[in-house]
Specification:
By secondary structure, the chain is α/β, with parallel strands linked by helices. It contains 15 helices and 14 strands.
Length: 395
Amino acid sequence: MSLHRLEAELQQLESEDRLRRLLQLQGPQAPRITLEGRDWLAFCSNDYLGLANDARIVEALQRGLHAMGAGAGASHLVTGHFAVHDQLERSLAAFVGLPRALLFGTGYLANLGLITALTGPDDVILSDALNHASLIDGMRLSRARVERYAHADVDALRAALQAAGGRERFVVTESIFSMDGDLAPLGQMLELCEQHDAWLVIDDAHGFGVLGREGRGVLQALGLRSDRIIYVGTLGKAAGISGAFVAGADAVVETLLQKARSYIYTTAMPPFLAAGLQQSLDIIQAETWRRSQLQQLVATLKQGLAGTALRLLPSDSPIQPLLLGSNASAMAASTRLREQGLIVTAIRPPTVPAGTARLRLSLSALHQLDDVQCLVQALRDLPSGLPQSSLSGTA
């Protein structure tokens, strides 16, 4: 590897409108953020319920910080597992209706840990074509045979299961897909798993807190119950803080505790974060208005763009992708919106397939109807022929 080669590769990314740059917030995450000394209306956060700066959670974090200090100091299996971690795991398992849960530092670590701990060279993984990078990386590390099936295609999955073979079969999918916002046909998928003696791994990163009457996630929303389900929930999106967990049968979770390298060989989550997450769970369950507000905002956005040439992908979730096609078009649209005081992220390959660059419009329960109407008007005002441009803070 040489600096010359690295510099050439970076120049190539820039020429293809694929170079990413950081934004620097000055203040809390919220629908209105402070950036570069100016306030902006933002539609690109995963803080779906608006809890990232909730005063009650901040107070719970402060109490935990004073009681238990700043860091865990060790891995969970040494001396880093606090009573508050144990209580949170019990609460999370009960919240999603599964026997047991295990905390991880991030959703990425959770997916790496569970896939590599449970699968190996003799097993077969059937993976949705649009699965998240963390799932893909876990599959690569597992050394299992991986077969991709067409996105959310039940017939394709059925055929793949019939031909799979292997010692064990694992069907791996997101619930709400992070860049498309659509919901996997999990009821039909679970039926297939039961017919073919397979496990169903559900990454509910964008459904936990959002789906279900009490925000308990996709299992509650769809009424799914089975010993074959292995569930991943993320705590840095709707829950507003950080971390993740895997829930399932006791033997599954115990196996992860014993074998998941991304759990065993890393410092435990700071205990004060677990205290804050316990408060977050209470708010998620009690304040159903947050999910109702999201539904109203999604409906307002769709109605506002109906009858225009602007193409929203099919989604009933807070993730509303506006497909634009080329990288240049997505970048130019993001730039034009920024000129109107709105921050909306342009999503380009390799995050999404080539030719499907988009604006990922992400809604929060703390957005107001006027905010969404402002977004609608700015989108409707986008020119049909957008010039090639560049913008900092793109993915």
